[in-house]
């Protein structure tokens, strides 16, 4: 009789464990949707506070970036070419 009571108690606790697990999963899923909703709301609020540049500002700063990249590209190509010549002459001088 005592073993039957323990068996019934174990079966009840397993049933409660399954119910608790299902409830826990439900809370996690609903919590993640609530969290995502809050995140999207906060994102929208923050984006409304951003000061966006005008089209003219974007065009002018893009031009500055392109000119700067071109300048440094040519500069580094020139430095590379001069270093190649210098190393070549250095190797010739030492006979390597």
Description:
It contains 2 helices and no strands. With 96 residues, the chain is mostly helical. It has 2 domains: 1-50; 53-96. The longest helix is centred in the N-terminal third of the chain and has 47 residues, at 2-48. It is elongated, with a radius of gyration of 35 Å. The model has no long low-confidence stretch (mean pLDDT 83).
Unreliable spans are none
Helix content percent band: over 70%
Secondary structure tally, helices: 2
- The chain-level mean pLDDT equals 83
Strand content: under 5%
Distance between the first and last residues' Cα: 98 Å
Question: What does this entry show, briefly?
Answer:
The protein has two domains: 1-50; 53-96. The chain is built from two helices and no strands. It has helices at residues 2-48, 55-94.
Topology, element by element:
Blueprint: H1 2-48, H2 55-94
Looking at this protein, list some descriptive labels.
single chain, 96 residues, mainly alpha, 2 domains, 2 helices
């Amino acid at each position: 009789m005592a073993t039957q009571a323990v068996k019934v108690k174990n079966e009840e606790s397993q049933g409660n464990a399954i119910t608790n697990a299902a409830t826990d999963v439900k809370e996690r899923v609903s919590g993640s949707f609530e969290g995502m909703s809050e995140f999207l709301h906060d994102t929208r609020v923050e984006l409304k506070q951003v000061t966006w540049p005008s089209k003219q500002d974007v065009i002018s700063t893009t031009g500055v970036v392109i000119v700067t990249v071109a300048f440094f590209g040519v500069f580094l190509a020139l430095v590379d070419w001069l270093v190649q010549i210098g190393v070549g002459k250095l190797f010739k001088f030492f006979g390597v």
